[in-house]
Amino acid sequence: RVEEVAGDDSDRRAAAAILSLIVYLVLLLLMVQAANGVAIEKANRISEVLLAVVKPTALFFGKVVGVALVGLAGLAAGAIPVIVKVVVGGDLPAGLGPAIAGGLPWIVLGLALYLTTAGALGALVERQEDAGSVLAPLSILLIATYIVAQSSTDGTFGVVLAIFPFTAPIVMPSRIALGIATAPEIAASLVIGVVTVVVVVRLGAAMYRRGIVQTGRRLRIGEVLRSP
Q1: Which residues fall within 8 angstroms of residue 146, CB to CB, at 6 or more apart?
Q2: Closest by Cα among 151, 115, 104, 129 to 28
Q3: For 129, which DSSP code?
Q4: Most buried of 66, 83, 131, 178 (most Cβ within 10 A)?
Q5: Residues 116 and 193: beta-carbon distance below 8 Å
Q6: pLDDT tens digits, residue range 98-127?
Q7: How far is CA 210 from the centre of its chain?
Q8: 3-state SS string over 47-74?
Q9: Distance of CA 153 to the CA centre of its chain
Q10: Is the separation of the CB atoms in 72 and 111 below 8 Å?
Q11: Nearest CA among 34, 35, 32 for reference residue 124
């Protein structure tokens, strides 16, 4: 008598790898787009014209939300073949469907965290060419998370990464795909993520409001936060 043990394990790992790669690429590309957009408006003095008729917070979050919607639209378009396959009776890799549905809140939280932070950092530079350097720490964190997640998602360190707000958008959907995410872990990750988004949104809006009007040199985060 032969009993199959963890027969869908390879499918689940494939689903986790695919999903983490997609989330990683979307966050990386969109945060660069958000920072570059803010930097271009500041360098060309377009923001000064817009700020005459629009409040800084409305201008800032309009850009962040716009870039995020473009990213979500791209994800939705990419999901069309998957949906069609399911409708016509095709099979998906085990864990992919639940991971996409269950991981959506973390994808949204990731977009809010990374795009808000990137947009605020973009307001610190004087030229568009400097946007890449100011984004370097955020990019390194995102790249390192993706690399580490490929081998540590199902370990103890994976639990930590799934709870930490800036790494959870990549790791938590993968853990859901593998079927190893627990209810307390999911709840803790969501609560901490939402609280972090609230804090980052407030700090990002303050940095943008103060940094977008200061020209002539590259600004530091500390001096922008201390300025009135």
Answers
A1: 20, 21, 24, 170
A2: 115
A3: G
A4: 131
A5: no
A6: 777 778 888 889 999 999 999 999 888 888
A7: 24
A8: HHHHCCCCCHHHHHHHHHHHHHHHHHHH
A9: 18
A10: yes
A11: 35
DSSP-derived letter for residue 182 is: -
CA–CA gap between residue 176 and residue 216 (Å, rounded): 48
Distance CA 205, CA 193 (A): 18
Sign (positive or negative) of CA dihedral 123, 143, 107, 83? positive
Hey, what are 210's tokens?
């103060």
What does the angle CA 50 – CA 129 – CA 32 come to, to the nearest 5 degrees? 75
pTM above 0.90, yes or no: no
- Residue 101's alpha-carbon distances to 45, 61, 76, 176, 178, in angstroms, are 42, 26, 12, 10, 14
pLDDT at 228: 65
Burial class from Cβ neighbours inside 10 Å (0-12, 13-18, 19+) for residue 57 reads middle
Number of residues in the chain: 228
Task: List the structure tokens of 50.
Answer: 């817009």
State the helix-helix crossing angle for 96-122 and 9-43, rounded to 10 degrees.
Answer: 20
